[in-house]
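Example record for the data management plan.
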Amino acid sequence: MATKKDYVFNRLTNPLLSEYPFFLFSAAMFWQNTLFALREWTFWGITQYTFLSLFYAYLLTILVHSFHSKWLKGIMYAIGIIICFINIYLRLCFSSNISPNIFQLVFETNSQEASEFLSNYVWQLSTLWLLVLLLVTVAAIIITEKYKHVIKLSVCWFLNLIPISIITGGLISLLFYTNLFKCKNVIEVDHWVATHGAKAMDNLSNII
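Corresponding structural encoding:
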C-alpha cells in the first residue's frame, strides 16, 4: 500500500519521467548562458545558476505535464528555441545577450532597418553554422519526443531525490534576487550588477 510519502514523491517525479526530453531541453536552454561565461563565474556562481536553470526547467515541465497539451508543448518548444538561438547569436556576434535594451531596439527598428540588418548580419555564410545547429536541434527534439516512450524510466530512490534537490537548490538560489528587488533606482541596480559580476548578467537578471 502506497504511503503519503510515496504519493508525494510520485507527484514530484512523474513530470520528469513523462516529459524528460522537454525538461532536458529547457534546462539546456536556461544553462547555455552560463556556458558562455564559465571563465567569469566562480564555482558558487556556476552551481547557483545551474540550480536556477534546473528549477525553471522543472516548473515549465510541470506546466506541460499538467495540461497534457501538444499545442502548449509545441509553443513552448518554439519560444525556447527562438530565445535560445537569438541569445547565442547575440553572444557570438555582438558579445551581448537578451536584455531590455535589445527589446527597445527591436521596437524602434523600422522595416528598412530590419531588412538591412538581416542582409548584413544574419544572411551570411558566417552564420550558416547557426542555421545548421538550429535544424539539428529541431530534429533532435522531434526524434526524442517521438521515441521517448522507448526509454522507460522507473521511479527509484535516486530519481525521487532529483526533484527535491532541484526545488531546494532553486529556492535557495532565488534568494540571490532579493537585493535586486530592493533596489530603488538605476544607480542601486548598477551597484548590484557591479557587486555580483557575471552572475548578474544572465538573461533573467537582465530582463528584470
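Summary line stored alongside the record: Residues 4-177 form one domain.
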